[in-house]
Design a protein that fits this description.
This protein is α+β, with helices and mostly antiparallel strands and about 500 residues long. It has twelve helices and 23 strands. A hairpin with a 2-residue loop joins strand 13 and strand 14.
Length: about 500
């Protein structure tokens, strides 16, 4: 197979073209009558011509990468984005393994290949996305659009990682138990480091009394895992479903992060996690199906930045990411960094070092995963008199540029959230439309849906537009694909 370059509207698009084939002649009709052979004549022997190998035609592509069906709300959200002057942006997906004039692997290849498997029906299990970040995603907004769109297109494999209680006394319970009592939350975003180590959730809950309890409503999940911290003298934790004990931890008090796995009874409606004594510590609960589909774990923590993720314990990071086996590590960072630079609590050199250390740590713990960093959204000084004038935060563009630089250098894709929103002045437009909270930092309502759509749309377009590997090599530079242009072909 080779590629045909076709010019369209000033752009170049690469198409795979089959070369060569087999041409075979045959006689049609009845066999000839036997005749007396003529006398043999002397034959002059010539040297045999060297054989020329005939190329074997390559198999037809199993399917084409196409934009999957989108939910009905997508059109309305896109219209709102256009009204806000948010043009979107393309994902920058660097080549990690060049091969001739092509690329054997880009930063997003592992994730895109997993989507291929889901689309073709050859996936054997869930495709997991781990979304780390700050308060922008901690409430499971923005990334919920990505989860919903991907699940609608490729199927859902469950809720994934959940918490036994909320991170604060307020907020929804979309990513927690349905009800709970007797738990105190601690997060890595606290000003002073809490006394116990964190797992990848960046949160742990301590039982404030014996029989502290959390109840989850099940959605047909077949398996689960309890992540807990083996704190001295804290006692055991029991996992139950409608009176049936499914698992009980066996603490030894050595302070390490542990995982207790359990199977869920068919038709079970609820799951309870109960602390037998005060002081028991839970880092998270995983509820999941065994079937193929999308799982997106929201691991955002308010006030967090790249430096604070260093509070995640090395052993817990390695074991929990190995268990989750993600195909995409997704990071939403930069908002808190730009504030701390403005407040003189951080400088650009440390920002680069912190981000570099985080990406290297995560990729080392999940070497088979793709990686993408989403830069900060537009931001202003505030709140206060200057904020009402919507003065842009002075360090924002420098932070955005630094994050792009580090991400690409570390082998991660980069999405420019700031540019996708419309650049300088975008937050003012969101504010005028009523899509910002009074703190002028956190979007709300339909504004969150627009931001989620910008990320989701860019990632799906990158998937469709990136030429998939042909005999292990994809084109080095993705070609832009319009609605009337051919889509990339997938060859298993």
């Amino acid at each position: 197979m080779t590629h045909l370059e076709v010019g369209r509207g000033g752009r170049r698009t690469w198409f795979p073209v089959l070369l060569g084939g087999l041409l075979t002649a045959c006689d049609i009709g009845s066999p000839p009558r036997a005749t007396t052979p003529p006398p043999a004549l002397p034959v002059r022997t010539e040297p045999a011509a060297p054989s020329v190998p005939v190329p074997t035609p390559e198999p037809e592509p199993a399917f084409r990468r196409v934009m999957p069906p989108r939910p009905e709300r997508t059109g309305a959200v896109q219209a709102q984005a256009e009204k806000l002057g948010a043009p979107g942006a393309r994902v920058e997906d660097p080549c990690l393994v060049p091969a001739g004039n092509g690329c054997a692997r880009t930063a997003l290849t592992p994730f895109f290949t997993s989507l291929d498997a889901l689309a073709s029906g050859t996936a054997s299990g869930p495709v997991v996305i781990e979304a780390f970040g700050n308060s922008l995603i901690a409430g499971d907004r923005i990334v919920d659009v990505l989860r919903d769109d991907l699940s609608a297109a490729y199927g859902s494999a469950g809720r994934g990682v959940l918490l036994v209680d909320r991170m604060a006394p307020y907020g929804g319970r979309g990513r927690t138990s349905a009800s709970s009592s007797g738990w105190q939350p601690r997060t890595l975003g606290e000003l002073r480091a809490p006394p116990l180590p964190f797992g990848i959730t960046g949160v742990y809950h301590v039982a404030t009394r014996a029989k502290a309890r959390s109840r989850f409503k099940l959605e047909g999940e077949s398996r689960g895992t309890l992540w807990w911290l083996d704190v001295p003298e804290a006692g055991a934790l029991t996992v139950m479903s409608e009176g049936q004990v499914l698992a009980r931890t066996e603490p030894v008090g050595d302070g390490t992060s542990r995982a207790t796995h359990f199977e869920l009874p068919e038709g079970a409606r609820t799951l309870d996690v109960v602390a037998e004594r005060q002081g028991a510590v839970v880092q998270g609960v995983v509820l999941q199906h065994a079937r193929p589909g999308i799982v997106l774990d929201t691991l955002g923590v308010p006030s967090s930045d790249a430096a604070l993720y260093a509070r995640v314990d090395d052993a817990a990071l390695a074991s929990q990411l190995a268990e989750r086996a993600p195909r995409l590590l997704l990071f939403f960072l930069g908002g808190n960094e730009s504030k701390r630079i403005e407040w003189k609590r951080l400088d650009m050199e440390k920002l680069r070092a912190d981000l570099r250390a985080l990406l290297r740590r995560m990729r080392e713990a999940a070497p088979e995963s793709a990686c993408m960093l989403v830069g900060p959204m537009d931001a202003v000084r505030g709140p206060g008199a200057k904020a009402q004038a919507l003065t842009q935060r002075p360090s924002l563009e420098a932070v955005n540029a630094a994050e792009r630089e580090v991400a690409l250098a570390e082998g991660c894709a980069f999405f420019d959230f700031y540019a996708a929103m419309g650049g300088k002045g975008a937050l003012a437009r969101f504010h005028a439309a009523g899509f910002m909270h009074d703190d002028l930092v956190h979007p709300r309502g339909a504004g969150l849906d627009v931001l989620g759509h910008l990320v989701t749309d860019a990632l799906l377009r990158a998937y469709v537009e990136t030429p998939p590997p042909a005999r292990g090599v994809a084109a080095l530079t993705p070609a832009k694909v319009d609605a009337d242009e051919p889509t990339a072909e997938v060859t298993p």
